[in-house]
Amino acid sequence: MKKMKKILAFVMAMAMVLGMSVTSLAEELAADKPTAEDKAEVVVKNVEAGATVTAYRIVEAQYSDAGFEKYVAVSGVTIANPTAPTSEEILTIAKGSLDGLASVTNNTAADGQDPNGFVASQPHVSENPAENGKVDYSASLGAGYWLVLVTGTEKDVYNPMLVGVYYENEDGTGNTVEGGDLDSNGRWTLNGTEVYAKSTKPAIDKKIVNSDGKNDDGEVVEAGNDVAVGDKVSFQIDTVIPSYSSEYENVIVKITDVLSEGLELDVTSIVVEVNDTKVDPGQDTYTVDTATEGKFEIAFASSYVLSNRDTIKNVKVTYTAELTDKAAVNFVPNTNTATLEYSNNPDDSSSTNTVNDKTYTYTFAIGAFTNGENVEGSEKTEEIVKVDENGNLIVLESNTTIEPGDTVVKVTEGAEFELRDTNGDVLAKGKTDANGRLQFTGLDAGSYKLVETKAPTGFQLDQTEHDVEISAVYNDNGTLASYTITIDGTATNTYKATYVADSDEIQSIDKTVQRTEIKNTKLSSLPSTGGIGTTIFTIGGCAIMILAAGLYFASRRKSAK
């Protein structure tokens, strides 16, 4: 019994020592233990400038006199495991009412909001388009999980984000949010997470299929090309349907394409593919509206867009159009503008944003205005003119205005020409106008043969086949940089456009012109009435008649004898 008492006394003494040790250690760490006042910086990176960033607290830390105890869902929020919220739980919270939750938003104290809220950085300057112009938003938040929503944007659609603020041991362990008791013997620091804002910024890419337009480096430019009147052009639109979160209940997603007057849409050629699979129109997929001439609109059903939200929906639209005789020529493009309209605010189903892209289809003309008849600074070109064998201009009207020093030869009708391909097939016909100028319109770049088929009255036909070459250079955005018309390999006419910065508006056109003079030789003229020529013919004719009569009578006498 005495022995047992000694053992119990020893155990009690050891317990007292251990208790004193724990107390002692706790007191030494009192100044460093976690408290409810702890905060750490959170950064939400690469957000559209001008957006509103709001963090709602959905999980908070609980503390005791000993420091941090555990994480719990805040009042009004349902999360089965506060240390590991599921995506479904987060989307449900984002979709429901957030009233009553502690929140931190943009630093706009003047509006009565949290002066310690999110502060925006200066816009990024980056070669990466996904970062250029974007800003970072930072704020100091307490320990726990925060639901971050980005609203008030014009272009980007942002999904709800989850950011965690957590404690970490000085040895680097415990760097995830964990529940339960933590080792109070460690020294703790609060850490914020750096979050990259997950957004869907829809873009639209319009291109010409199998474009033959090329830039200065010989690289194909898919947004610009040239064709002849009557040719069909194939177009393609590529875009992505935004990946909307569950907070969106009704959305608008439309693709519209508007063609200029010179392009005639083939409504039967429109094909829509989603993720490389053809999708037929219908009430559950999309509808196509072609009621307006030169325009079509594809409207996706909201239920189709919101189904399988996490699946990326790559959309491709293809169709064809024909270049008609209404087409603009030279530097005036025949354009297509494709526009994507999409919802960007879950709280306002009518709020949308648009992005667009454009293609440029050109056709060329000889002897036509470079940049439209009514455009200031545009002028009618004179690549080919008719002259006589002495270089005198052949015109049709007596009141034609000419440059000083020019000589005018007046005729009653002009010369007629055919423009043929290299196989000899006739592509176009033309006739010199009142200024002796020849015009062809609606031409593709390439090689041609120019052949005169009828000479002006009083002139011989030109038997020479003239080589004509039209070549073009495009800017990277699809606009026409320059075009050159070469005739007979030596006479080169080049027209080069300068555009207003970052636009397709022409500022000026420079030209290098050496006009080609196609000569016609005059037919041999008959002498005028009463002139020496007439007399000679008359005398000669009389002499022949007298000689013939003399021979006749002489023959008669001889026969009579």
TL;DR of this structure?
With 561 residues, this protein is mainly beta. It contains 4 helices and 37 strands.
Report what the structure shows.
This protein is mainly beta and 561 residues long. The chain has four domains: 1-27; 33-200, no CATH class; 204-362, Immunoglobulin-like, CATH 2.60.40; 365-520, Immunoglobulins (Immunoglobulin-like, Sandwich), CATH 2.60.40. Helix content is 12%, strand content 39%. The chain contains four helices and 37 strands. The strands form nine sheets. Strands 30-29-32-33-34-35-36 form a seven-stranded antiparallel sheet, with no helix packed on it. Strand 33 (466-474) and strand 34 form a beta hairpin. It is elongated, with a radius of gyration of 43 Å. Residues 1-26 form the signal peptide. Keywords: Cell wall, Membrane, Peptidoglycan-anchor, Secreted, Signal, Transmembrane, Transmembrane helix. It comes from Acetatifactor muris. Residues 526-561 form the Gram-positive cocci surface proteins LPxTG domain. This is Trypsin-resistant surface T6 protein.
Strands of the largest sheet, in order across it?
30-29-32-33-34-35-36
Helicity, as a percent range: 10-25%
Sequence stretches where pLDDT stays below 50 over 5 or more residues? 1-31, 172-189, 525-531
Distance, first to last CA: 201 Å
DSSP strand count: 37
State the helix count.
4
Structural class call reads: mainly beta
- The proportion of strand residues reads 35-45%
- What Rg do the Cα atoms give? 43 Å
Keywords: Cell wall, Membrane, Peptidoglycan-anchor, Secreted, Signal, Transmembrane, Transmembrane helix
Signal peptide: 1-26
Pfam families: Gram_pos_anchor, SpaA, T6_Ig_like
Protein name: Trypsin-resistant surface T6 protein
